[in-house]
Design a protein that fits this description.
Organism: Clostridium facile
Number of helices: 8
Protein name: Heavy metal-binding domain-containing protein
Largest sheet: 6 strands, antiparallel
Structural class: alpha+beta
Bound molecules: zinc ion
Oligomer: single chain
Number of strands: 19
Radius of gyration: 29 Å
InterPro entries: UPF0145_dom_sf, UPF0145_YbjQ-like
Family: Belongs to the UPF0145 family.
Amino acid sequence: MEDIMFTSGFNFEGYHITKYYGVFTGEAVIGTGPISELKANWSDVLGINNKAFCDKLDIVEGDAIVALKENVSRHTHANAIIGVDIDFNMFANNLISVIVNGTAVKIEKDKIKEEYSKILDCPVMDYNFSIDIRPCKARFYISDSKPTLMQLQVYSYSPKFLSAMQFDLSVNTLLGDQYKVTDMILADFKIDQEQSTKTIGVYQSERMPIELPISNFRAIESVNINVKKYKQGQEIGKPAYANTVVSFPVTALIQLKKRYGDDAVSEIFETDDTWTCACGYQNSLVLDHCSLCHRQKGETICGDPQETIEKYSLYHTILDEVQPLGSAKEILEGLKRHQGEIPDEIIEKIEKMATNEAMFGNMKRDCIQYLEQQLPH
Ligand SMILES: [Zn+2]
């Protein structure tokens, strides 16, 4: 009985429900003692902040919950109770009864991570600042024996609960191919309390099976998501403008997200009369919080943001180019093609390693490590 979990909600994070046993009740009764002298009706009594009385209520509530758990374990093999609801009743003879209701269920730990051999996170390469939600990341669950599943991470800049979203999806592969699926619908989002802040809600969608004419899902590098409609609270939202596509490579976008958060699509920078937020929204310089994502402006970068981003992508291109080469000597030759684009001292250093190679053996590993350290942080 001890390990029966209970919640007023209807699910447990990391578990799924495998069996419902129906609604069960637990009841406890106590005398109100001196409280009865108040001769107030029940709703008045609830409004009174009387410590002794509240303590009494807590105890009787605890008793009722124990009674509910006993009742459930006597009649079922349930290991959890969901939708727990507590009712108080007062009787004429100064007795208070507490009745606790809940649905007994059997829950099991999600085995999703064990069942899928590969979990692949891919950034979303476009965004739309005319809506206050932002799909940021697509997670693919890949297995040799099961259909691939996709789960979306969506940021919301509104306090209203996101309940559904309709969108077109494009999946981009490492080899430059693109596969499209139109009018997908997600209707089950859970808010991630750990990642959410006061102003930004982080949502995880349900995991939905996805079929694509692609032989290996491991080749997926990024996705584009064109939101068509979404439901937030009671309202249906639609974008007023077309999407903006991120203008730099996946590797640079991942760096940005590490710095500013998963919804980031831009450096934070100032121009003469606006500042651009990490979410991509251009704000007037008089504002110190972003009007879309409510981020504080904080420190803006010096210099041209496009230049910083291009620097990222150049360094990553160079790293990609030199990775398959066999020696410091070959890497030096490769780098010389970028003379003028990268600082001379980098080339000089690699030149030294190439010279040392005759004495110390292959220096490829040292070269790559050095080049990785030179990446802008
Ligand atoms: Zn913003």
